[in-house]
Amino acid sequence: MKNFKLVSAFSLWAVSASCAFATTVGFSQVGSESGWRTSFSEAVKAEAKQRGIDLKFADAQQKQENQIKAVRSFIAQGVDAIIIAPVVETGWKPVLKEAKRARIPVVIVDRNINVDDDSLYLTRIATDFTEEGRKIGEWLMDKTQGNCDIAELQGTVGATAAIDRATGFNAVIANYPNAKIVRSQTGEFTRAKGKEVMEGFLKAQNGQALCAVWAHNDEMALGAVQAIKEAGLKPGKDILIVSVDGVPDYFKAMADGDANATVEYSPHMGGPAFDAIDAFIKGNKEQSKWVSTTGEVFTQETAAAEYEKRRLR
Ligand code: AHR
């Protein structure tokens, strides 16, 4: 009897110890539209592997309906937790309620969600997109003394990274009467679309000068660089190029003089997301609703050295 008690006490301890960490986590990722996104997916996968987590990864190909299907499938599989990097902000409430009913914690990473009940998710790990837009806007206004006709390549419509980056940038240039956005269209965060839209901008300008391209991510900025070169102009000189992300290809473009500045957005959000899940499993059910990380502005001056540091990472 004594032995039985000892054995059962040990198994109870073993069960509770083995439950103190997440073992199976579903991750619904936006897609693979940019170099930044690919680095982010790889970083989460590497972090999960290091922690011995079975990560169920679903690429939504930039479609919210695919994300909702993936989340429902994670719920049906009974995962310990779900991580969502949402494509757009709206339309999340019903599926988050399903996760809550199944008692599965949800961590939001990167872009935000727009829900009136914040008990539907545990926490959000992301940069301050408004601050990013503000920082790059300030850099550009400083560089041009506030005289600038700007072409804007917007990110995906309805995505926080597009909405908030535009808000931050616009708030800065509003203080400069000779700075204005003269062209604006979505390039859906991809290089191909960024190039296509920039070609359209240049055609529509019909030889009238543009001072700068403000792209909501590096990938579209790199597409614009190509379009500007093909039009016989010099990106980085004839037209300044500013954006956000800090991917190796963009550092290379800055080192080559083809782009001017970017705000770094670290893709290493897997660690804090898994930490939040583990804390939840250990009993910390009420967590701060936003864990923010904001990067700094990088320019041509340090680009070559930064590229060397990053290209083999
Ligand atoms: O939501 C973050 C943005 O999404 C990144 O800046 C961009 O590269 C990605 O597609």
UniProtKB/TrEMBL annotation:
GO molecular function: carbohydrate binding
InterPro entries, per the entry: Peripla_BP_I, SBP_2_dom
Gene Ontology biological-process annotations: transmembrane transport
Matches recorded under Gene3D superfamilies: 3.40.50.2300
Entry's localization field: Cell envelope
Entries under Pfam families matching the protein: Peripla_BP_4 (PF13407)
Domain Periplasmic binding protein: 25-284
Alphabetical UniProt keywords: Signal
Top-level taxon: Bacteria
Residues spanning the signal sequence: 1-22
GO cellular component, one term: cell envelope
PANTHER family: D-ALLOSE-BINDING PERIPLASMIC PROTEIN-RELATED (PTHR46847), GALACTOFURANOSE-BINDING PROTEIN YTFQ (PTHR46847:SF3)
Family indicated by similarity: Belongs to the bacterial solute-binding protein 2 family.
Protein name: ABC transporter periplasmic-binding protein ytfQ
Protein species of origin: Shewanella morhuae
This protein's encoding gene: ytfQ
